[in-house]
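step=encode ok
step=design start
structure_in=
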């Protein structure tokens, strides 16, 4: 018996996996960095900077959540 390899799926995995890892890593970094800097800015009474960093944190959280949901949808969907 000869095993067949789906080269199209393998090639797709070669670019999709690093892209997914980079997206999740950057999104989580935005979330953590924005949160920490917003708290520091608020403590130093820099409200405009705190607001900007809070927006960064919210965008990072939204991107992180979207990436996780997308990954789950892809895993449970059938072709």
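sequence_out=
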């Amino acid at each position: 018996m000869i095993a067949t390899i789906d080269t199209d799926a393998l090639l797709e995995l070669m670019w999709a996996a690093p892209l997914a890892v980079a997206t999740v890593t950057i999104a989580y970094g935005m979330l953590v960095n924005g949160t920490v800097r917003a708290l520091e800015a608020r403590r130093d009474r820099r409200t405009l900077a705190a607001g900007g960093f809070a927006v960064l944190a919210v965008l990072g959280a939204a991107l992180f959540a979207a990436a996780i949901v997308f990954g789950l949808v892809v895993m449970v969907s059938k072709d």
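step=design ok
step=annotate ok -> Residues 23-70 form one domain.
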